[in-house]
Design goal:
Helix content is about 30%, strand content about 25%. By secondary structure, the protein is of the alpha+beta class. The protein has two domains: about 210 residues, C8orf32 fold, CATH 3.10.620; about 90 residues, Sandwich (Immunoglobulin-like). Strands 9, 11, 13, 14, 17 and 18 form a six-stranded mixed β-sheet that branches. The longest helix is centred in the first third of the chain and has 15 residues.
């Protein structure tokens, strides 16, 4: 029975049911929600409490992820310092704060307690347009891969750190915004957003090099919601002339109906939302053009139904 339950969940994850917002993990998510923070428990006790009602490993992993994104915060200081002492499961559980490595270590430890094979993967991610073409000297992120079967196709990505929320551009303030999009996402999309230092843990198609990875646009959480693929332009820095149209194109899950597309031009106090514009959506391919009139060098973000998909750095000049 356990084997067939796992297979059913994997079919849903890979098929249109999940894309149509039918959540196969409603039971696990609701159970975790009613448990609260479980402040008085140890790692082992919390893991047992979270996973005890469930038979399949995928549900157990989901319960762990769901609890972590609601109750563990990103620690700005630890994220900047990459302090390994603050990344141990015990320290994270004590402070309820962690850097990316701490999130990954705790998720791995809790999976181990639940008899789920899980590995910590270190690598790179990009958070804003200043990161485009700016390769850091060392890995700046960490996440997990989870194995639910014996074959290579039964490894899945999990990023509980990004799932919990985000830091501001200065990396001083954490905003909690729990999202389930970083639990077992599309491998190809995840690889546009993450680059493992050990290529053995780059599941599926991925950028050929770290340089190519850092040249791409910034991937927003909304990209996971719509199942984004093959974004064009595929380079994060683009140039335009005033009054001339730039064409944007990407593929999305055909089961999802996108009602509106919009842009955010600039950032902060200088941010200007675009007026509504027309777009084509044929067989799961979105395409539209936009004319940028203002000269300058500024970020632009692409939204579908108010969900952030992509961010570019745009230079408009004669």
């Amino acid at each position: 029975m356990k084997k067939w339950t796992t297979i059913l969940f994997l079919l849903i994850l890979n098929g249109n049911l999940f894309a149509q917002q039918i959540n196969p993990f409603t039971t696990a998510d609701q159970y975790v929600q009613q448990l609260g923070s479980l402040d008085a428990f140890s790692v082992a006790s919390i893991t047992d409490t979270l996973t005890k009602p469930f038979q399949s490993k995928v549900e157990k992993a989901r319960a762990i992820y769901s609890w972590m994104i609601q109750h563990i915060s990103i620690d700005p200081k630890a994220s900047k310092s990459k302090d390994e002492n603050k990344a141990t499961p015990l320290k994270v559980m004590t402070t309820r704060q962690a850097n990316a490595k701490g999130f990954a270590n705790l998720f791995q430890e809790m999976c181990s307690q639940a008899d789920i094979r899980c590995i910590v993967v270190e690598g790179f991610t990009r958070n804003n347009t200043e990161d485009i073409e700016n390769i850091p000297d060392e890995a700046n992120h960490a996440w997990n891969v989870v194995q639910l079967g014996k074959s290579e196709t039964e490894w899945w990505y999990v990023d509980a750190c990004k799932g919990s929320g985000s830091l501001d551009k200065r990396q001083t303030t954490f905003t909690r915004q729990p999202t389930y999009q970083y639990f077992f996402p599309s491998n190809s999309l995840f690889n546009l957003d993450h680059f493992a230092t050990n290529k053995a843990w780059q599941l599926g198609e991925s950028p050929a090099s770290l340089k190519q990875f850092y040249s791409g646009p910034i991937i927003g959480y909304g990209a996971y919601i719509v199942g984004l693929k093959s974004p064009v332009p595929n380079h994060g820095k683009i140039k335009a002339s005033p009054g001339k149209s730039i064409r944007f194109r990407f593929q999305h899950d055909a089961a999802i109906s996108i009602q509106s597309m919009s842009l955010q031009i600039g950032e902060g106090n200088k941010m200007i939302p675009s007026p509504p514009f027309n777009f084509n959506d044929e067989n799961g391919w979105i395409e539209f053009g936009y004319i940028f009139k203002k000269e300058g060098d500024y970020p632009i973000s692409v939204f579908a139904d108010k969900q952030l998909l992509l961010t570019y750095q745009l230079e408009v000049s004669e």
